[in-house]
Amino acid sequence: MARTDTRFRQAHNQMLDHLRTLPHDAPLASEVQFATRLGVSRTVVRAVMQKLAADGILRQDGRGKRLVRAPRDKDRLPLRDDYIGRDELEARFLDWVLRFDVPAGTALNITQLARQFNVPTHALQEFLASLGQSGLIERRPRGGWRLLGFTADYAVELSEFRQVLELNAVRSFAALPADHPAWADLARVRDEHLDLLSRIERDYHDFSRLDGRFHALINSVVQNRFVAEFQKVISLIFHYHYQWDKTMERFRNEAAIGEHLRIMTALEARDGPAAEAAARTHLATSKETLLSSMRGHHLA
Amino acid sequence: MARTDTRFRQAHNQMLDHLRTLPHDAPLASEVQFATRLGVSRTVVRAVMQKLAADGILRQDGRGKRLVRAPRDKDRLPLRDDYIGRDELEARFLDWVLRFDVPAGTALNITQLARQFNVPTHALQEFLASLGQSGLIERRPRGGWRLLGFTADYAVELSEFRQVLELNAVRSFAALPADHPAWADLARVRDEHLDLLSRIERDYHDFSRLDGRFHALINSVVQNRFVAEFQKVISLIFHYHYQWDKTMERFRNEAAIGEHLRIMTALEARDGPAAEAAARTHLATSKETLLSSMRGHHLA
DNA sequence: ATTGTGCTTTTAATGATAAAAATCACCGCT
DNA sequence: AGCGGTGATTTTTATCATTAAAAGCACAAT
Question: How far apart are CA B152 and CA B290, in angstroms?
Fold first, then answer.
């Protein structure tokens, strides 16, 4: 077969919902209006109209379209469980790779993966291609894909790259003019750190999100699409690993809060070099945590 | 139809070439040996063998395969002009985008582009997806692709990103131990600069390649797959723009050689800060050149 | 002039299909 | 038994025809 008619079915059902709100024998809006309202092309609207006319729900002659009878529940078209979207696919794929510790060098099987993730093979192909630049995946010369895998090497290089980007961001941050809105954000995030620190015993789990916000803030002062793109990969991977390594979690998080605070204090004092040094320390810790988490997971 | 049989045809012709070197009635090697020699799977070898047997060129019963008659020229299978490879596609695509100055926001037409570049639609899809991270291209929500375009913004951000990476590389370079092989490479590249400078009047065109080698050398000391990946994009784009902006080319190149030499002198003196400063100057010039080249091209 | 509809053309997502690779099963020889 | 080979079968992936959806065109009605 070809394209799914999911769009048609959804539009059809939405149209039923709309018709139900209308009084009997009411005149209907134009095709273009419906098209924009439902977010589909006019072709789909026309197909829906025709179906509805055939089912005796409305009558159409030219532009004089009218409601004939109220739609019933059995008029709805069932829609098969749809394919998952791109973001969902990304999440599931990374989860699979990282959680099951797929060995480096594994040849990926498109068909099998496509079934596993419930996507058409094409979508998977495209997804893998888009992952190409992240260095996790490689195209085999004679077709097929190979998972390069999330190795220790990879983690080291990722951390170093992260360090390059983030130290640069810290330097830029320290040089911001006093009236830049980022300073207000920084004060807010600092308070959140202090707040979390006061109740760390109980809520140490909340650190992961705060960590994400902190690094996002630091990097936000560098307006650069390439940096932003990589930041996505980086935060994704670090985020995933934080989820597992539960050893010493409370301790690690408390220490990390301290390191964050030192960076922020130095920044607020406009002391660039001190901020850079503090950031360097923090990133080193972060790298160590990532590596040890990998070692632990690998032995498991 | 399905997969092309290009592989089969190529293997077939290669096999003919091989058979021609053999004496009459000679016994042939095993299928596996041919498979590895021709770089294809055994299935293809068998298909070729069968065809050759059907054409009366060889006789096969079990493992006793023998040459029956020498192959003639008309036994060769014609192979239709094959699809172009990935690198070729990349080159052509960038050439198209940059040279024809395709306006930002243009919706790309897969089918048309596939015809234009002589690739199957699928290959193009995959290529566009792989370009996703480069920020030149965007997936439209309801299918299709949009060219974000090579705008001034893009050039600025690319240059800044390049600066972050390359300054980091320069710092690493200055800190290398004295016995690192990169120092020898540096001396060689420096001599090449001096050499080109002495004959700049005539050979100023040769600078583009030397420039590429210089920056590649600087970045080679950072062993990082992410850096390497981006370096590819960066050098590609800068390379393309160098090709057009012919204004003042001789002057620009001479000046650039001087800037390169200053960086190298500082490096050889192990003066990190001086090298960084020189690199900063050079990258600023480079950025200006790129921007002005774009302005010139845009008005044309 | 604007808004709407009927009809046609174009485009891209999907599944079927065939080529190629990988795997299995078995044989003959040492 | 173990190695090197062939025959047959089973995946697996690149390509293409097909169809839903979008875009475009011409004209009618207000």
Answer: 9
Say if B129 is an interface residue toward chain A (CB within 8 Å): yes
**DSSP secondary structure letter of residue A27:** B
CB contact under 8 A, B164 and A161: no
Answer whether any strand D atom is within 7 A of the Cβ of A109. Answer: yes
How crowded is residue A181: how many other Cβ atoms within 10 Å of its Cβ? Answer: 9
pLDDT digits (tens, 9 = 90+) for A216-235: 999 999 999 888 888 888 88
Contact flag A129-B126 (C-beta cutoff 8 Å): yes
CATH of domain B86-147: 1.10.10.10
Structure tokens belonging to residue A133: 């630049």
Query: Touching check for A85 and chain B: CB below 8 Å?
Result: no
- Residue A141 is predicted with a pLDDT of 80
Q: Which nucleotides of C are covered by protein (CB under 7 A)?
A: 3-8, 10-23
Which CATH number describes the domain made up of A6-75?
A: 1.10.10.10
Give the pLDDT band (50/70/90) at residue A84.
confident
Both tokens of B32, joined, read 């596996």
User: DSSP secondary-structure letter at A56?
Assistant: T
Distance CA B86, CA B147 (A): 19
The amino acid occupying position B216 is: A
Q: Which helix (H) or strand (E) holds A108?
A: strand A107-108
Phi/psi at A67 (nearest 5 deg)?
-75, 130
Domain ranges of chain B: 6-75, 86-147, 152-299
Select A152-299's CATH number: 1.20.58.220, 1.20.120.530, 3.40.50.300, 2.40.50.180.
1.20.120.530
Per-residue pLDDT 10s for chain B (300 aa) are 578 899 999 999 999 999 999 888 888 999 999 999 999 999 999 999 999 999 999 988 877 888 988 899 999 999 876 778 888 888 888 888 877 777 888 889 999 999 999 999 999 999 999 887 778 888 887 788 998 877 888 889 999 999 999 999 999 999 999 999 999 999 999 999 999 999 998 888 888 889 999 999 999 999 998 888 888 888 878 777 777 667 777 888 899 999 999 999 999 999 999 999 999 999 999 999 888 877 766 554
Helix (H) or strand (E) holding A145: strand A145-147
Domain B6-75 and domain B86-147, same fold? Reply is yes
For chain B, say whether A87 makes contact (Cβ under 8 Å).
no
Q: Which residues of B touch A165 (CB under 8 A)?
A: 164
Cα B151 → chain centroid: 23
